[in-house]
Amino acid sequence: MDYVETNCFSYFKDKDLSHSLDFLTGVLNRETFNSYVNHLIETGVPFTIALIDMDNFKTINDSYGHIIGDKVLIEYAEELKREFNGLGVIGRFGGDEFLVVLEGITQYDDIWNIFHNIYNKIQRKESQTLKNEKVTFTSGVVRFPKDGDNYLSLVEKMDKALYRGKVKGKCCFIIYLKEKHENIEIKSILEKTTSTIDLIDKSYDFLLNNKCPIEERINDLFTYLSNTLMFNHLCIQTGYNMKYERIHLLSKIRDFEPLKYDLIENNFNAHGVSGINNVDYLKLIKKEELYDDFKKQDIRSNLCISINAYGKRYGFIRVDHEQNRAWDNNIIELLTIIARTIGILLYHNNTTL
Predict the structure, then answer these.
(1) CB of 124 closer than 8 Å to CB of 280
(2) Hey, is 262 helix, strand or coil?
(3) Which fold would CATH assign to domain 189-348?
């Protein structure tokens, strides 16, 4: 209750909130939060509202149990209250989803700076409940009256922005822009699973098309992957050369350089995968040289998959993003299958990239 009172939002002045808080997390319950948002809409007060979804919460429940899951929700509700104190009001939407309203704040740059700063703080925090692990969030952010004139339309657009963030790789915030996000179609879990299978099938179609030279097959596949998965930067790096490079139209970074090959190789796990969600973590584990390599290009997250077959190494598939990204297992599996297939094709054709 204190975090609402210290913000001095007029709607809550002199209100008894003792029965208005979520029983588990202590933020506003959904009914009270909805009443607050509808009040702002009815009185014409501009505001920004965000739907904040905890990434991979089902995995936490499945791995540690629901009691630990509840403790994580409580811990991070407190974290959100602390970080948004003086800026916004937090409510629980349901399950692992929270809402925040920033009353009177609607300028894009202001919103971006607020969420960027808060995300950086939360992403550096290690969970006290899950020792030595980090919990991340994805947020869909919309503005009233710019993005909708009623609560339902705002929620619909928050869902689209949130879905875009999940598809992009989680661990990020997306501010809704009509020209970018209006036509997003939200897919169910079943549809997303099916679409991953479809991606694998289509990748095989590209790579196993014997009518085309292998270079042309990879070119066509990478164009398809870049457009479909919206990677900021996709390429194959061989030594200190980048080939089949694709830079997405929405990427703010336009100039990428080769990474230090040996540093990436040393970061591969036993499966030939190097996934970095947040380059700041590299400093914590004393990999300053690799950190510097990413930092000079403004890369915040990176995924590399080794291309090899029968003991021969041909390079690695490389994906870069300008924001922190929690790499989805489906994406890792897809790119691993592609890397292995390319490796086998190169080996049997006795050629290199």
Answers:
(1) yes
(2) helix
(3) Beta-Lactamase (3.30.450)
Instruction: Say how far apart CA 55 and CA 173 lie, in whole Å.
Output: 12
Predicted TM-score (pTM) above 0.70: no
User: Which tokens sit at 311?
Assistant: 């003991």
The CATH fold of domain 2-181: Alpha-Beta Plaits (3.30.70)
Task: Give the CA radius of gyration of the chain.
Answer: 22
Q: Is the peptide bond before 46 cis (omega within 30 degrees of 0)?
A: no
Per-residue pLDDT tens over the stretch 250-278? 788 999 999 999 999 999 999 999 999 88
* Closest to 115 measured CA to CA, from 159, 176, 32: 176
For 17, left (φ over 0), alpha (ψ -120 to 50), or beta? alpha
Query: Alpha-carbon distance 186 to 137, whole Å?
Result: 18
For the chain, the domains span 2-181, 189-348
How far apart are alpha carbons 338 and 351 in whole angstroms?
17
CA 3 to chain centre: 28
